[in-house]
Design a protein that fits this description.
The complex is a heterodimer of chains A (474) and B (202). Chain A has helices spanning 9-16, 41-49, 81-97, 112-119, 150-159, 184-195, 210-213, 217-225, 241-247, 256-267, 317-330, 356-366, 384-392, 395-402, 451-460, 466-470; strands at residues 18-21, 26-30, 33-36, 60-62, 100-101, 127-130, 144-147, 161-165, 168-175, 203-208, 234-237, 279-284, 291-293, 301-303, 345-348, 376-379, 405-406, 427-430, 445-448. Chain A is α/β, with parallel strands linked by helices. Chain B has seven helices and seven strands. The chains are: A alpha/beta (474), B alpha/beta (202). The complex binds iron/sulfur cluster.
């Protein structure tokens, strides 16, 4: 291969991590960072049954998030025995194998995809994996990061490597500027609505263009987080000054001379001029409006100014039937204006939208307003550091004053495995990433939106165009 | 892993697009060890009437003709979403050894291969045709031949499919990837030496 040929960010990281490439194209990749959470007991069990130990425990980091309660920080107070067992098992497995563990109640605990970037563990040029599909989040720092299954987690523990076939590349270029009240969450929902929930299957996405460059690290993390909802294997943003200034000084980021050496490596990572992608999609940021989903796939997203679609408009019988089932599950009638849809609960949280910038955006809307009668609204910060920062800024008082509940960090209502679920038929405005049937509890109805839009829904009691509130309307 | 060569079995049509892994196995049944039988969790909520433990007779897997199906035929983007390998375990423990769809969630596809469940991607028109045949003749069987890389529909039409040669070899021999990788330990060690402190955590 011509060493001078222009290469993409993805290709540079991929080739740097190749331990072995077979003739059939299967590649053994070295894993720099392996993140684990409290849902990985089966992988440790499989390792133990084979009499194996982790090859590189110093490259493995564990944190409980899926099964932790959001009303206490004490493991002993987890009422459900199975959930408590999973949190304890992660701590025990970590201690036994010399894996660093950010335990419940400790200063670093939080959602695995929040704390990776926050501690500086996630860095440009790294190959990172975690037994969780939203590992794509860490690509925001210019890492190649993707989710794996339980058998693969065991494989990584035992060998620090993983077999992969090289994915294709997709460049999503977003030029122009996002309008007032429009966030990275709206952008990624617009992208998924455009290319579909399988639009990036088999691909690694690189987000590029002026609108992406202009995003803060928090916004980039939100964008890359939902790459999986577009079917993508991973999502990435090339590192730049935003990335470096975000990382500088973080606990696990390189220091001193190591930082200088790392910067030299990182500056060589962005895709070369003229590098070829297998596919390209472009989007004008200025056309993106605040988005909300109406169905049970993230691709079912529309601008908040829209209406519930009509199954009769679907192109074929199968499509009509599927949409009718979706609307039946969601309890929505075709043609209803999205702004007329009343909500029962609001969840501001998850690895998509529980960083400090998200909470600031929601607080801006909540400040001086009240959660609507009959609506139960939660704010679940993504991590202990996010919670501390928000409290230092007084955001918790803004939320509490408006009638929101201010909870402890964890995955919470994103997936409900800790018991934070919505009941059947309950309609939730949620800043998380999946509106699948039953995701937030059997029969629960999820509408995905941005933190500011969620806050707007909380105070009006229905899905609401946040731009109207930002413009001063009550 | 149990080897996979040929399979002649009843196929059940689940024609919707984007059937996600949350639907295949709801999150509250996750994080059990592999030794636990995952079959009772398969499509747990979809198989029941809303808010009850009674079976939903309309759900295809509950129909007598399809109860014993070992092949699932689905719409595009089957098993998208979460990385939960328990989605594969639930299908496998129910007896499903093959899924046919126009496309699959990437992580599910990897997980399936590693557990001896063959994902077969066919063109959307072929899957639509197969779904129609299965709906018209409930209980009809489909044949999957991995060495030949073909699927034979109830009407006798045969379609070829692609499979990664490495995955094919693993499936055919019930080969354990981990044992193979462990035999490459020297190469992994050499890689670690070459990389030194680059990208190492503090
Ligand atoms: S917040 Fe939700 S999507 Fe993110 S890791 Fe937790 S359960 Fe998964």
């Amino acid at each position: 291969m011509d060493a001078e040929a222009p290469r993409t960010l993805f290709e540079k990281i991929w080739s740097r991590h190749r331990v072995k490439e077979r003739e059939d194209g299967q590649t053994l990749l070295y894993v720099d960072r392996h993140l684990m959470h409290d849902g990985t007991a089966a992988a440790f069990d499989a390792l133990r049954r084979r009499g194996l130990a982790p090859r590189a425990p110093e490259r493995t980091f564990a944190v409980p998030d899926h099964y932790v309660p959001t009303d206490t920080r004490r493991v002993a107070e987890i009422a459900d025995e199975r959930r408590r067992g999973l949190v304890e098992t992660l701590a025990r497995n970590s201690a036994e194998h010399g894996i660093r563990h950010f335990g419940l109640g400790g200063p670093h605990q939080g959602i695995v995809h929040i704390i990776g970037p926050e501690t500086g563990l996630s860095q440009p040029g790294l190959l990172m994996v975690c037994g969780d599909s939203h590992t794509s989040t860490h690509g925001a720092l210019g890492a190649l990061a993707f989710g794996i299954g339980s058998t693969e987690v065991t494989h990584v523990l035992a060998t620090q490597t993983l077999w992969q076939r090289k994915p294709r590349t997709l460049r999503i270029a977003v030029d122009g500027a996002l309008a007032e009240g429009v966030t990275a969450k709206d952008l990624i929902l617009a992208v998924i609505a455009r290319i579909g929930a399988a639009g990036a299957t088999g691909h690694v996405i690189e987000y590029a263009g002026g609108a992406v460059r202009a995003l803060s690290m928090e916004g980039r993390l939100t964008l890359c987080n939902m790459s999986i909802e577009a079917g993508g294997r991973a999502g990435m943003v090339a590192p730049d000054e935003t990335t470096y200034s975000y990382l500088a000084g973080r606990e696990y980021a390189p220091k001193g001379a190591e930082w200088d050496r790392a910067l030299v490596r990182w500056r060589a990572l962005p895709s070369d001029e003229g590098a070829a992608f297998d596919r390209e999609v472009s989007l004008d940021a200025a056309t993106v409006a605040p988005m909300v989903t109406w169905g049970t796939s993230p691709e079912d997203a529309l601008p908040i100014t829209g209406a519930v679609p009509d199954p009769d408009a679907a192109p074929d019988a199968e499509g009509r039937a599927a949409m009718a089932r979706t609307l039946d599950y969601m309890g929505l009638l075709p043609g209803t204006a999205l702004e007329e849809v009343a909500v029962d609960r609001v969840f501001i949280g998850s690895c998509t939208n529980s960083r400090i910038e998200d909470l600031r955006g929601a607080a801006l809307v909540a400040r001086g307003r009240k959660v609507a009668e009959g609506v139960r609204a939660w704010v679940v910060p993504g991590s202990e550091p996010v919670k501390r920062q928000a409290e230092a800024e007084g955001l918790h008082e803004v939320f509490r004053g408006a009638g929101f509940e201010w909870r402890e960090p964890g995955c919470s209502m994103c997936v409900g495995t800790n018991g934070d679920i919505a009941g059947p038929g309950v309609r939730v405005a949620s800043t998380s990433n999946r509106n699948f049937m039953g995701r937030q509890g059997p029969g629960a109805r999820t509408h995905l939106l941005s933190p500011a839009m969620a806050a707007a829904a909380a105070v009006t009691g229905r899905l609401t165009d946040v731009r109207r509130l930002l413009a001063g309307e009550a | 892993m149990e080897p996979f060569r040929r399979l002649d079995a009843v196929a059940v049509p689940l024609g919707e697009p984007n059937i996600d892994t949350d639907r295949i196995i709801p999150a509250r049944f996750l994080s059990r060890l592999r030794s636990v039988d995952h079959a009772p969790f398969l499509f747990h909520d979809a198989r029941r009437l809303p808010g009850s433990d009674d079976e939903n007779p309309a759900f295809p897997l509950n129909r007598p003709e399809w109860r014993a199906a070992r092949i699932v035929v689905a719409g595009r983007n089957f098993a998208c979403g979460s990385s939960r390998e328990a989605a594969v375990w639930a299908l496998y423990d129910h007896g499903v050894r093959c899924a046919v769809a126009p496309s699959f969630g990437d992580i599910f596809r990897n997980n399936a291969m590693k557990n001896g469940l063959l994902p077969v991607a066919l063109p959307a028109e072929a899957v639509a045709d197969l779904l129609a045949q299965l709906e018209a003749r409930p209980g009809a069987t489909v044949s999957v031949d991995l060495p030949a890389q073909t699927v034979t529909f109830p009407d006798g039409a045969t379609h070829g499919f692609d499979v990664d040669p490495f995955d094919k070899q693993c499936l055919l021999e019930g080969l354990d990837e981990l044992a193979y990788t462990l035999s490459l330990t020297d190469e992994i060690t050499a890689f670690e030496r070459r990389m030194g402190r680059e990208n190492a955590p503090p």
